[in-house]
Amino acid sequence: MTDVTLRRFTSGAPIIESMRNFSLIGILITLALIAWMAKGMLAPQASHDPNDKSSVEYWVSHDADRDVMLSYCNNHPDQQGSDDCKLAIAAQSQIDSGNAARNSTQGNTTGVTQGTQNAADQLEAQKDANNLP
């Protein structure tokens, strides 16, 4: 090989290497863009519309509509598999479980339990007995 041939191969190597890096970066950017677009297209759309009947929150907050739908579902067993019936039943279950949890955590708010009430009654009886003439 002559000096001219070596210069031709060595002078083109940095250009080819930078082009290879550029194409690799381009492919990675393209893949990232495709993945980002696919994530947006495949993600379920969440509705925040308070009047959207396709959410359980609607049925929880609209008591009259829920009661009418539950009555309809009870009177039409063949329709209990419909989306509205399922959502109304889920909302009623959520309300029932929330009320049960609220009642169990609320408990006694007076600070007087049956044991302390009995002790208070005994103390009152003792005071009355001491005050007898």
List the helices and strands and how they pair.
Elements: H1 3-42, H2 56-61, H3 63-75, H4 83-106, H5 114-130
What would you note in describing this structure?
The protein is mostly helical and about 130 residues long. It folds into two domains: about 40 residues; about 55 residues, no CATH class. It is built from five helices and no strands. Helix 3 packs across helix 4. The longest helix is centred in the N-terminal third of the chain and has 40 residues. The chain is elongated. The relative contact order is 0.05. The model has no long low-confidence stretch (mean pLDDT about 75).
Shape: elongated
Q: What value does the average pLDDT take?
A: 76
Helix content: over 70%
What is the SS-derived class?
A: mainly alpha
Determine the oligomeric state from the structure.
single chain
Percentage beta strand: under 5%
Question: How would you summarize this macromolecular structure in one to three sentences?
Answer:
By secondary structure, the chain is mainly α. 75% of the residues lie in helices and 0% in strands. The protein has two domains: 1-41; 49-103, no CATH class.
